[in-house]
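Cross-check.
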Amino acid sequence: MNPRPHVGIAKFEKELEKRLHPRFLLNLPVEYYPIDSPGAAQGHTLNASQGGLMVCLRELFQKGQCISLKIFFSSESNLFTIETKAEVMWADHKLGEDGNYRYGVKFVEISAGNLKIFKTFLDGLSPNLMV
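Predicted model, tokenized:
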């Protein structure tokens, strides 16, 4: 049994994109809700880095809006849930074929422990799986 998640293989030059952290193509489940809302909904990631995510969500959010996220992933035999507050950095308001909107979100509040767990998870992925 392969403990690694199913991820896509692609790589962009880090220098061309001027990113602080490498991105990995990852389809991870997320639970999200606006900061002032008690109700949560489900979505998923398209890619991830230790600084943020590209996510597919059913609700319409605006650039600059903050949302709460729970990210679910497994590593070896462990299941992890990372909680974070994220800011929408860009929004694609064109509804995708899957009925979701795409967003780029940046982590703005994440505990040091959760960040370490997520960074360790990402560091464990093959360098050939970066985008």
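The CA atoms of residues 25 and 79 lie 19 Å apart. Strands lie at 24-25, 29-34, 41-49, 52-57, 66-75, 78-92, 101-109. Passed to J.P. for a second look.
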